[in-house]
Amino acid sequence: MDNTPSGIDRAAPVVARRELPISAPAAAVWDLLTHVPDWPCWQPDIAEARALTPLTRGAVFHWRTAGLDITSTVYAIDAPRLILWGGPTQGITAIHRWTFTPLTGATLVATEESWDGPSVRADPAGIGQALDQSLLQWLLHLKSAAERTSR
């Protein structure tokens, strides 16, 4: 039986969701988000990022943020509409989903993430607030980079 997540864990103690319209074509926004090695160029919260292969189902990539070394696995991908990745890091099981909906002259980007683990259950309100702000920052940085390169 395949235990690969098909979405975020809606029963997790922390679930956050944000969305933002970005004035750029979905393909351009998708390319920015899915080219992992370039993340530090437009996402200042990420110190380093590497992927040895293109992002496909089962691909693994590594990145460093907030002092954490994270290894993520792509669980699902449907370019340029959806990508789902996640994995365990320091006792936290995270699942992160991105969706891209074309609009007239823009793309609606939605991101949602679930976190579970002992440290998350110990302070779900505080960790939930931090995750919510992290998702907002991801979107704002993605918006800035996509709109700058799409002009």
Give an overview of the whole structure:
The chain has a seven-stranded antiparallel β-sheet. Strand 2 and strand 3 form a beta hairpin. The mean pLDDT is 95. The radius of gyration is 15 Å and the shape is globular. The chain is 29% helix and 42% strand. The chain has four helices and seven strands; from the N terminus they run βααββββββαα. The protein is α+β, with helices and mostly antiparallel strands and 151 residues long. Helix 1 crosses helix 4.
How many helices? The count is 4
Low-pLDDT ranges: none
Cα distance, first to last residue?
Answer: 47 Å
Class computed from helices, strands and strand pairing: alpha+beta
Shape: globular
Question: How much helical structure, as a percent, in the residues?
Answer: 25-40%
* Overall residue-averaged pLDDT value: 95
C-alpha-based Rg, rounded: 15 Å
Strand content: 35-45%
Biggest sheet layout: 7 strands, antiparallel
The SSE string, one letter per element, is EHHEEEEEEHH
**Secondary structure tally: strands:** 7
Strand order of the largest sheet: 1-7-6-5-4-3-2
Secondary-structure topology with pairs:
Blueprint: E1 14-22, H1 26-34, H2 39-42, E2 46-51, E3 60-65, E4 68-78, E5 82-89, E6 92-103, E7 106-116, H3 118-122, H4 124-149
Helix pairs in contact: 1-4
